[in-house]
Each structure stands twice: as structure tokens, then as C-alpha cells.
Amino acid sequence: MASIAVIGGTGHLGKGIARRLAKGGHDVTIGSRAADRAEAIAAGMGLGIKGAANDDAAQGKDVVIVTVPYENQEATLKQIRDKVGSAIVVDTTVPLMPPKVMRVQLPAAGCAAAEAREHLGPEVRFVTAFHNVAAHILDSDAKVECDVLVFSDDIEARKTVVSLIGDMGLRGLAGGALVNSAAAEALTSILIYMNKTYSADGAGIRFTGLTTAPPIP
After folding, report:
1. Which one of 23, 104, 143, 210 is at 20 to 30 Å from 48 when CA atoms are compared?
2. Residue boundaries of the structural domains of the chain
3. 3-197 adopts what CATH topology?
4. pLDDT single digits (tens) 129-155
5. Residue 40: partners with Cβ closer than 8 Å, 6 or more residues away
């Protein structure tokens, strides 16, 4: 069992990740800028999930998962970077820039992952994942049909996150180095376009022909 904080855990993506991890047997705390909001939502979720302010949630955990919008990424990561210690930090950020969210608009650094690496500093164990999973489906009891790509230059941290995704009842796949996160970040805009164009409710990607990959749940 791992102790896990989900920062920004009161939205669909954060709640979905928190609930599925708790069902998978992990000790989960959701964080919010307001502790009372996190505590109230956690109480409604059950499953032993706790709530706290972001700072407090991030302290003393094995894994810290950040699920905030792109515009809040920098401030949130700088807020928690001195709190996470040796924890693996997993960032889910996609650089969507309204109103043209169906167009790929990666930042000057190349991807949000590269920016996050700078915000956290080189000493923090850093992974990105969950870019292409529909948040409202994750925050439900529905089966998640898509694969979840995981990126990091820290191979052991990447393996840990892939395993946690398996505990959630999803298939996690290693996607390689952190810079490869750019491909998944860009793909989100394409999936939003596919949802609109083909009247889909949470289009996703699944990889085929991977004979040594984890089985599809």
C-alpha cells in the first residue's frame, strides 16, 4: 500500500484518480487550496479518503499526483516542491489554451512536462501521466477503454506509476523519456477534436500488438 496525495483532487480528474487508487487499496489524501473543501469532498467520497490543504496533503507521501489546469501548474508545483521530499511527483498537466483547445499549442519549452521539471527542480523524482484519459469517465464506475501513457527519465519511478495505474484497473504503459510527454500532451487536443467531430464521449487511444505489455483489464 502506498500513501498518495492527489493535489487539486476536487475536480473530475483528481477525484477519479483518488477514488480508483483508494479502491485499489492505497491510502489517499486529496488536496485543495481550501482544506475545508477538500475535507468535505473526501467525506462524501468515502473509501477512507482524507482531505487537506495542498501543502499538508503533499507532505510525507510516497507519491504526489498533481491534477490542476495548465494556468495553475506553475504556482501549484512551486507551492509543493519543498514539501514532497523523496516522493514521486506525477504531473497530469496538458497545455490547453482556450478557446482553441482543439488545436495543438505546446509551450515554448516544448511541453508542459519540461516546464514542470524546471518548476520542481532537478532533485524531485518526476513523472507525467494521465494526459489522454477522459476525466468524467475516470470519475465514474465506467470501464476505462484507453491506455495510460507514463513518461519519465527516472525508470524506477516510471515503473512505480505504471504499477499504480494497474491497481486502478487501467492499463499503464511506459512511454519513454520525459520529453516524449509532448506527444501525449498534443494528442489531447486531437482527442477533443475527435469527440466533437464524431460525437464521442471520451475518445481514447489503445495500443495493439504489445505482446509483453500488461494485459488489458
Report:
1. 143
2. 3-197
3. Rossmann fold (3.40.50)
4. 999 999 999 999 999 999 999 999 999
5. 51
